[in-house]
Write a structure and sequence with these properties.
Blueprint lengths: L4 E9 L5 E7 L7 E5 L5 E5 L3 E7 L22 E8 L4 E6 L10 E4 L8 E7 L3 E10 L26
Antiparallel strand pairs: 1-2, 1-5, 3-4, 5-9, 6-7, 6-10, 8-9
């Protein structure tokens, strides 16, 4: 059984101030709300209907840093589905999600942002925050794998079924 950890997050909300704190993974994401432990030590339950995005951050500096890099400058190289998320307020952002339907979470989408080396390492977007999800491309499709090279037979090895047989 996997252990739980507290991750630093910045929760962007619709028409409200962003919140900083810690989310326990995997238990902090409920069916209809995310449970946040504030730096002051209180626990707050934020409904998905008020949540725009839960950004897993390296540190708490730069409260609205998730807004800076919202789309890819060129075609991404990370394998997965390249998606554009359109929020209820018509704001949008791009990201990468796993190309595996078993990994799609019922409460929302866990995406890799365009620049994961920046402040945000991963972003969770609740389904309630979205108006539309568009697939822009499939990167690293298993349909385009190169065929395996045939192993050359060594000289002197007998064939099992001869030409006559």
């Amino acid at each position: 059984m996997a252990g739980t950890t507290n991750k630093k997050v910045l929760i962007a909300r619709f028409d409200r101030e962003s919140l900083r704190g810690f989310v326990q993974t995997p238990g902090g994401f409920g069916a209809d709300a995310v449970e946040l432990l504030t730096p002051e030590g209180s626990i707050v339950s934020i409904p998905y209907s008020e949540t725009k995005a839960v950004c897993f951050v390296r540190d708490f500096d730069g409260a609205d840093s998730w807004r800076e890099q919202r789309s890819f400058a060129a075609r991404p190289k990370t394998p997965g589905l390249w998606v554009r998320l359109v929020f209820r307020d018509q704001d949008s952002m791009e990201g990468m999600i796993a190309n595996n339907l078993l990994l799609v979470e019922p409460g929302g989408f866990s995406i890799i942002p365009p620049d994961p080396t920046f402040q945000n390492q991963r972003i969770f977007v609740p389904r309630a925050a979205l108006a539309d999800v568009q697939v822009l491309g499939v990167i690293g499709s298993p349909l385009r794998r190169k065929p395996a090279k045939k192993v050359e037979q060594e000289e002197g090895q007998l064939e099992m079924f001869g030409e006559n047989g």
